[in-house]
Amino acid sequence: MLQRTAFRAARSARVAGPNLQTYIAPRTSSPIFSELSCRSRAFTVSSRWRADDAKPESKEGAQGEKSEATPGEAGKQDAAAAKELEKKTKEVLDVTDKWKRSIADFRNLQEQTRREVTAARDFAIQRFAKDLIESIDNLDRALETVPQEKLTDENKDLKALHDGLRMTEKILMSTLKKHGLERFDPSAESEKFDPNKHEATFQVPQPDKVDGTCFHTQQKGFILNGRTLRAAKVGVVKNS
């Protein structure tokens, strides 16, 4: 019933024209008119909302077209990125090279320090050993001056003294050997002449010996930890 009344009122309003407001005004409190008014407002708001939503899409589309339309800028960005990458790569290679060189220098320094420490330890007694060599030579000469035929039971005192000196020399040389100092006699084993260890004082022919060998020792030599401390003075065979 109410719907029919509203329909008749709307048709009358189209016919009445200017008198529509005066006719509808009393009916504004009707639920039907309220519902129609709300629907009209909702339609208007919805239309405006859709129009507003359409604008950002058009903007995004324009931006997409703009970005697609400028490939030159993308190429410039790629070139700049490649240049920056090349620069960083060179920096990494430079730092790596410096790091490797530093490690090599450090290892060389360690090796040099180790050699210096070893040399200092091995040859710390070099000066002392040189001063001691003369005393050893004198002790050796004293033992050689006593003829073997006099070392009999008839000369017990001389024999005891000689044995004591020989024992002292043996203990002394054993102690020096512990510290790297050794005495050598080239003629005892007929060594080949070595200019690094021997000093030739004379040369004579010896048919029964090999040419260039040491057959006589005037003064024994000494070696300190593999290094010649004093060369032995020897006579060398020369047959030709």
TrEMBL record:
Skewed-composition ranges (Basic and acidic residues): 49-68
GO terms for cellular component: PAM complex, Tim23 associated import motor
Matching HAMAP family: GrpE
GO BP annotation list: protein folding; protein import into mitochondrial matrix
SUPFAM superfamilies hit by this protein: Coiled-coil domain of nucleotide exchange factor GrpE (SSF58014), Head domain of nucleotide exchange factor GrpE (SSF51064)
Function comment: Essential component of the PAM complex, a complex required for the translocation of transit peptide-containing proteins from the inner membrane into the mitochondrial matrix in an ATP-dependent manner.
Region (Disordered): 49-82
Major localisation: mitochondrion
Family designation: Belongs to the GrpE family.
PROSITE patterns to which the protein is assigned, alphabetical: GRPE (PS01071)
Source organism of the structure: Elsinoe australis
Listed PANTHER family: GRPE PROTEIN, GRPE PROTEIN HOMOLOG, MITOCHONDRIAL
Keyword entries, A-Z: Chaperone, Mitochondrion
GO MF term set: adenyl-nucleotide exchange factor activity; protein homodimerization activity; protein-folding chaperone binding; unfolded protein binding
Record protein name field: GrpE protein homolog
Database matches in CDD domains: GrpE (cd00446)
Subcellular localization: Mitochondrion matrix
